[in-house]
Amino acid sequence: TGTDIIEENPATGHRTWTFVPGPIFGNILLADEINRTPPKTQSALLEAMQERQVTVDIATHPLPRPFLVMATQNPIELEGTFPLPEAQLDRFLMKVALGYPDVSSENDMLLRFERSDPLQSLESVVTPEDIAAMQDEVRTVRVESSVRQYIVNICRGTRAHEDILLGASPRATMALYRTAQAQAAINGRDFVIPDDVKGIAPFVLTHRLVVNPQTRLRGREPEDIVRDVINIVPVPVEGT
Fold this sequence. Notes:
Elements: E1 2-8, E2 15-21, E3 28-31, H1 39-51, E4 53-56, E5 59-62, E6 68-71, H2 86-89, H3 103-112, H4 128-138, H5 145-160, E7 164-166, H6 170-186, H7 194-205, E8 210-211, H8 213-217, H9 222-232
Parallel strand pairs: 3-6
Antiparallel strand pairs: 1-2, 4-5, 7-8
Helix pairs in contact: 5-6, 6-7, 7-9
């Protein structure tokens, strides 16, 4: 997050405290293998990810806009890793499992890196101001009351499911609402339909759920339970 240091004026000998921003002060923070960071580092992200600000000592410093946190997580090794607390997981908008590339994509990867490293010649395709404008535009996408209630019912359905110890939080409800608006905008619409919600819900909800140990022993994962909830909750239809 940063720290306060003492700086001395060589001419006067006067000393002042100066705040030196840490690496979190950027538009995009990439935390590689975030579960290798100790709890103190992870807790430092909580305020930044929710309030978009950093408090050091008694001073609060706003983060630049837009501010995005992207993270990878090592899913295999346990040695040297720390579990992410539920409060931190809840602050991540979405979780996506990439898996292995298909045959064609893996071949394309080799061709792209055959003679040079394309990462060294990347050029920006959008400005921070463009991203901020798109974020504001997404908020204007219309969500009818029946679709809004559908979002609420899905999230509340996870809290009542017998296989779930900890269901989706109100923050998850808001995340599903915003991502459904973004999904509609990406699809060229200025209104949300139930399919937007159904398509995006597994990526928004699964990492926020805590499943019963007995349920995991039966081989059921949060993804399975989210699908159950989506199948159970009635879908709003036109005229309702």
